Amino acid sequence: MIDLHSHTNQSDGTCSPAELVTEAVRAGVTTLGITDHDTFAGYDMALPAAASAGLELVCGIELSTRLHGHSVHLLGYFLDASDLKEFRDWVLDLQASRRERNVRLAVRLRELGFDITIEEAEARGRGMTGRPHFAQIMVEKGYVRGIREAFDKYLDESGIGYVFRREPQFAESVAHIRKAGGIASLAHPIRVNDDVPALMPELKDAGLNAIEAYHSDHDVEHVELYLGLAKRYDMLVTGGSDFHGAVKPGVRLGTGYGGNLRVPDDVVEKMRASLSPRR
Ligand code: AMP
Ligand code: FE
Ligand code: FE
Ligand code: ZN
After folding, report:
1. Quick check: pTM over 0.85?
2. Residues 4-18: what's their mean pLDDT?
3. Is 10 close to ligand 1, i.e. is its CB under 6 Å away?
4. pLDDT (0 to 100) of residue 109
5. If you placed Cys at 143, which of 1, 88, 132, 138 could pair as Cys (CB 3.0 to 4.6 Å)?
């Protein structure tokens, strides 16, 4: 079983990298992509556990990019070659912009009367502190009833606590991934604000070469739609659960919500076959 979209506690998941490997093996996953937000730390740390468990790991990352004024998630795969210093440096830049945003977000939330510090948020977020960590603190301190309320009222772009983050443009991000020899896949297209079929020519021009057709949030019709777009625009297909552990309790590794996900075996074979021979 294949699952190419998962998060560790190095971003906003709850499992440590080693725990994620154990969970994946227990769930029957044989190939696991780790796609933490803006960091490779979880993947790097999972390597020894995966090697001893006989689990095949795929190096991935999930980037938050800007497209037509909205945030669009972009997955990058096979970015583990040793000569990718330029790409990894660029990721460090993204982390710096995230940290700078988090400092301002903590100030803003304090202005709104919440007792929340940047130190508290960073203690939870480790390498990649994000809004979900702020949301968890707000829930625990009783300021909101749940993560959803924290986002709806305060943290979403429409929320009163929202602070701007400098995010890389979609096309720029695709270019970085492709230049590094990786595969760039449009993450959970169902969550893209704009009409995806209408966007496709532009995404193709930007160098996008894959679509995440299989995802826990996609029902059968969505999967068909995105498989059709991948075929039409001659792109690869990727897929995964978007497992985050206890913060997204319904989502299971490999199988999604109640078994609504199944990523075909040939997905990874086709991805590998598309890579340039130097790997
Ligand atoms: P950040 O990367 O810090 O800007 O936070 C973005 C992350 O917050 C996303 O990757 C999601 O995991 C999470 N997120 C965004 N919007 C919501 C929402 N409405 N409810 C719950 N989680 C959300
Ligand atoms: Fe996330
Ligand atoms: Fe995402
Ligand atoms: Zn994700």
Report:
1. yes
2. 96
3. no
4. 98
5. 138
